[in-house]
Specification:
The chain has about 130 residues and is mostly helical. It has one domain (about 1-60, about 70-105): Non-ribosomal Peptide Synthetase Peptidyl Carrier Protein, Chain A. Helix 2 packs across helix 3 (about 75-105). The chain has helices at about 1-10, 10-45, 75-105, 120-130, and strands at about 55-60, 60-65, 70, 75. The strands form two sheets. The protein has a two-stranded antiparallel ribbon. A hairpin with a 5-residue loop joins strand 2 and strand 3. The chain contains four helices and four strands; from the N terminus they run ααββββαα.
Length: about 130
């Protein structure tokens, strides 16, 4: 059983997937820092607010002695929109990677065309001529 597991774990596809997963996790951090450090501030300038702090308060909370809001119920749509932007960036980059890989693949050579033979009408004409004889 251990031998079978080793063979399974060392298959090329599984190792490729593991490497892609680790690279994807690292790339996700890069995209998150790009969105949080560059995109969010620019959009924050447009909305005149911190983009990640945008929220719709459904039930206001109360302030406790420490000055913190307690019991607030809010929809954090700014954080959601940041995650959507992250997703779009990752999806676009993955699209570009797949498109680049597909362009680098060798085009398949077309099979040689079958030799052109007589058409159906020509065959029927030949049969007709042979029957006349």
């Amino acid at each position: 059983m251990l031998k079978e597991f080793k063979e399974f774990a060392m298959k090329g596809n599984l190792v490729d997937i593991a490497v892609a997963f680790v690279m994807g996790a690292a790339f996700n951090k890069v995209v998150a820092s790009f969105t949080g450090g560059i995109v969010s501030p620019i959009i924050g300038l447009i909305f005149n607010a911190n983009f990640k702090d945008l929220k719709y308060i459904m039930k206001p909370g109360t302030l406790n002695d420490a000055g913190e809001t307690v019991g607030e119920v809010a929809l954090l749509y700014g954080d959601f929109m940041t995650n959507i932007i992250d997703f779009v960036i990752v999806a676009f980059v993955m699209f570009m990677v797949v498109k680049g890989v597909n362009n680098m693949k060798k085009p398949k050579e077309e099979a040689p065309a079958a030799p052109a033979g007589p058409t159906q009408e020509e065959l029927l004409a030949q049969i007709r001529d042979l029957l006349k004889k």
